[in-house]
From TrEMBL:
Pfam families: HAMP (PF00672), HATPase_c (PF02518), HisKA (PF00512)
Upper taxonomic lineage: Bacteria, Pseudomonadati, Pseudomonadota, Gammaproteobacteria, Pseudomonadales
Keyword set includes DNA repair: no
Keywords of this entry: Kinase, Membrane, Phosphoprotein, Transferase, Transmembrane, Transmembrane helix, Two-component regulatory system
Protein name in UniProt: histidine kinase
EC number: 2.7.13.3
Membrane-spanning ranges: 6-27, 184-206
């Protein structure tokens, strides 16, 4: 199972358990909380009624005054209130008064007058000077039929002479409880959903970051040039830095070993030629022969120098994982500069140069590397172009890239050589001298083009050979 999925499942389990326990705890506290608030209101109402009814109760005129009619009218009122979106169309309080013996002398419902309530806690405890309250089911078989009762003492000079009880059915509170529970469930589910979404995004981000590091390590193991993933701080940045450092150390060691073997192999031939010529020069020989051997030593020394310089340039490019700068490079100006540097060779071979590059075409990249790459292409084309031949340089914009092509009139490249032209140290004999080059020029050009995110192709065309480069365009 992928690491991201495992992290997400753990996160889901944590959020699920936390959400369940929190919601369950809060849900269990809603009903008692509402009832506690209601009971507090009943206490205030009962004590208010006790003060209002005290004088008439003391005088024994409760039933003779208008109190029965007033309480009956109170019970029949229709408030038509809208309490936070919930309608209230009837009053739910029941008020009854008992004397010092617990006998009901006044009842807003009119059903309990004369009955003995002295054993109910709201009356029994209040008459004893304690807080009297009870919750009793009006239907013993219905759990939703319970009614809260709160009693308040009627006092005369500090002596309890009666009790006023205010009652309210719990069913009248149920709509508010249900609405609160529904809202809590909706909000809780929403928060859990957001938590799970955040967990999924976190798992996806972490998995994506690890996949990028894995892909980078895989690409490095396959010898492909890729840029190390970048992260902003934390352990992932440290891990990426450590992997990059490890790659640099391992590649550096293998790279040096490979180049030492290659350089040793390539230097054997010119060194052997120089040594042989030097041994022959130690003896007596005609002056013309001496000049020929001295010329051989000079040409082989130049070949060795050129080989070492090109190896160093190629090694520098191959070791890099990205460009040091990306700036606009005018292509027409760069080509003019390179043609001017090769003007002597072009005039010496009487070549015709055809230039088709717009002045507003700009490459996006590192100027030094682009100059080196295009210079190598031009040198290679000059080596194979016969006297009075044609060089044609074109460039055009294709989407977000510039396609640059260099055509040189020459014999077709053999089919067996075409796939190997970009190989390191592979070269074809030059028509003028019959000698091979270092075989590093085209390989260097390919590495520079790849470093810029472009592509290179070489092929035979009518009357010659054409090299095409695709490089980034600067707007």
């Amino acid at each position: 199972m992928p690491l991201g999925i495992r992290i997400f499942l753990v996160y889901v389990l944590f959020i699920g358990l936390t959400g369940y326990f929190v919601l369950n705890t809060v849900m269990e506290e809603i009903r008692p909380g509402v009832r506690q608030s209601t009971e507090e209101t009943l206490v205030d109402t009962a004590n208010l009624m006790a003060e209002i009814l005290r004088d008439d109760f003391k005088a024994g005129t409760l039933s003779q005054n208008r109190w029965p009619e007033l309480l009956k009218a109170y019970g029949e009122r229709q408030p038509k209130a809208n309490i936070w979106g919930l309608p209230k169309n009837q009053v739910n309080h029941r008020i009854y008064v008992t004397d010092a013996k617990g006998i009901v002398v006044l009842d807003s419902s009119g059903v309990a007058v004369g009955q003995d309530y002295s054993r109910w806690n709201d009356v029994y405890l209040t008459l004893r000077g304690e807080y009297g309250a009870r919750s009793t089911r009006s239907n013993p078989d219905d759990t939703n039929s319970s009614v809260m009762h709160v009693g308040a003492p009627i006092r005369d000079n500090g002596q309890i002479i009666g009790v006023v009880t205010v009652a309210k059915p719990n069913s009248s509170l149920q709509p508010y409880v249900d609405r609160t529970e529904r809202r809590l469930l909706v909000y809780g589910a929403g928060l859990i959903g957001l938590g799970l979404l955040f967990g999924a995004l976190l798992s996806w981000w972490l998995s994506a970051a690890l996949r990028r590091l894995t892909a980078y390590a895989q690409a490095v193991s396959e010898g492909r040039r890729v840029e190390v993933p970048h992260y902003r701080g934390g352990e992932l940045e440290q891990l990426a830095t450590a992997v990059e450092h490890m790659r640099t150390q391992l590649e550096g060691k293998a790279y040096v070993e490979r180049y030492v073997h290659t350089l040793t192999h390539e230097l054997k031939s010119p060194l052997a030629a120089i040594r042989g010529a030097a041994e022959l020069l130690q003896g007596e020989m005609p002056l013309a022969q001496q000049q020929r051997f001295v010329s051989n030593i000079d040409s082989e020394s130049a070949r060795m120098q050129q080989l070492i310089e090109r190896l160093l340039n190629l090694a520098q490019v191959e070791q890099r994982q990205g460009l040091e700068e990306r700036v606009a490079v005018p292509l027409a100006g760069l080509v003019d500069e390179l043609l001017s540097a090769q003007a002597a060779r072009i005039e010496g071979k009487q070549l015709r140069v055809e230039l088709h590059i717009a002045a507003d075409l700009n490459l996006l990249g590192e100027p030094f590397l682009l100059r080196q790459a295009l210079g190598n292409l031009l040198e290679n084309a000059l080596d194979f172009t016969p006297a009075c031949g044609v060089l044609r340089l074109r460039a055009e914009r294709v989407g977000e890239q510039i396609e640059f092509s260099l055509f040189n009139q020459a014999e077709a490249i053999p089919d067996y050589a075409l796939p190997r032209l970009n190989e390191r140290f592979y070269s074809l004999p030059r028509p003028d001298s019959g000698r091979k080059s270092t075989g590093l020029g085209l390989n260097f050009v390919e590495e520079v083009v790849k470093l810029h995110g472009g592509a290179m192709s070489i092929g035979n065309v009518d009357d010659g050979v054409e090299v095409s480069l695709r490089l980034p365009y600067d707007r």
